[in-house]
Amino acid sequence: MKIPALPALRLSLALAAALSAATALAHGDEHIDPNMKVDNPIMAPELAFGRQGITREASRTIDITMSDDMRFTPDRLEVTPGETVRLRIRNTGKLTHEFILGTQADIAKHAAMMKQHPGMEHAMANAVRVAPGQSGEIVWQFTKPGQVTFACLTPGHLEAGMQGMIVVGSSQASTHATSAPAAAASPAPAATDDRYTAGEIRKVDTAQGKLTIKHGEIKNLGMPGMTMMFKVKDPSLLSRVKAGDRVHFVVEKQGSALVITELKKVP
Predict the structure, then answer these.
(1) Which H or E run includes 101?
(2) How far apart are CA 149 and CA 107, in angstroms?
(3) How far is CA 88 from CA 60, 98, 128, 134, in A?
(4) How many beta carbons lie within 10 A of that of residue 66, not counting itself?
(5) If phi over 0 gives left and psi between -120 and 50 gives alpha, with beta otherwise, what is residue 202?
(6) pLDDT tens string 148-175
(7) CA gyration radius for the chain?
(8) pLDDT at 163 (0 to 100)
(9) Do residues 97 and 164 make contact, with C-beta atoms less than 8 angstroms apart?
(10) When comparing pLDDT for 35 and 99, which is higher?
């Protein structure tokens, strides 16, 4: 039997220890957002109707189609409390549609905002925008029993009946998820100048000239905190920030688009 040289043996043991430590860290209490393509891991917050799930933990895939008849098929689903489900959504129509999960109150609030700002683009784990003939998906863990609404918030579509329901638990389950408010904490210190909104960069998309930002209340637009994609007026702004940076920014409505006109990093 050949005994490895002592230095090589020590190196092997060190590498094994490092791998063991990395594995232990990877299985901590953090709930990592697996879909955000950023340099820093994102913590997926718990909402009133659950939280973003991890794909490998999904117990099943449910296919949902949405059409220009303003209908989802199926429009009613049942899942088990605590279950992680992969929702695969296909747009069979010729119009762009959205699929967004939320409480009834959340859906109504977002629908009202979409009427005021039809050009806004959601960038949240519980929402997906699907072009004609394309597919998208949401992986979601339904942590609480009750009812969760899904809908298309493109102006006019919800009013035409484009919505459905997910029952978490039995049909007689508590409606806790339809009434409990979701927490909406500002991701960065509030800006001292009301023109500015506090936020955290989640993604820099140089090709499309857009920034994905988790932000607090946008006071000049009457918009609550959420995660959205914004166009930038000056493309050079994209090179000044990276995922994870905290920023203060000014956003204005230009036509149907929401455009960032000023941006500065927060120390």
Answers:
(1) strand 97-102
(2) 8
(3) 10, 13, 10, 11
(4) 25
(5) alpha
(6) 999 998 888 888 889 999 999 864 444 3
(7) 22
(8) 92
(9) no
(10) 99
Q: Can you read off the two tokens belonging to residue 207?
A: 């090709």
Helix (H, G, I), strand (E, B) or coil at 76: strand
User: Would you say the pTM of this structure is higher than 0.85?
Assistant: no
In the prediction, which pLDDT does 188 show?
52
Tens digit of pLDDT for each residue in 5-51? 544 444 444 433 433 333 333 333 334 444 444 433 445 578 889 99
Give the DSSP H or E segment for 17. helix 6-26
126-147 mean pLDDT:
93
What span, in angstroms and rounded, lies between the C-alpha atoms of 52 and 138? Answer: 8
Q: How far is it, in rounded angstroms, from Cα 25 to Cα 265?
A: 30
Partnered with residue 230 across adjacent β-strands are 211
* Tokens, residue 61: 């895939």
Nearest to 200 by CA among 186, 217, 221: 186
Q: Which amino acid is at 83?
A: E
**Facing residues of 168 across strands?**
79, 146
Q: How far apart are CA 48 and CA 148, in angstroms?
A: 9
Extract the tokens encoding 243: 């995922």
Q: Is the pLDDT confidence value at 130 over 90?
A: yes
Closest CA to 201 of 189, 215, 191: 215
Residue 152, classed as helix, strand or coil, is coil
Rounded distance between C-alpha atoms, residue 203 and residue 38, angstroms: 6
Counts for the chain of helices (H) and strands (E), in that order: 3, 16
pLDDT tens digits, one per residue of 112-122: 777 777 666 66
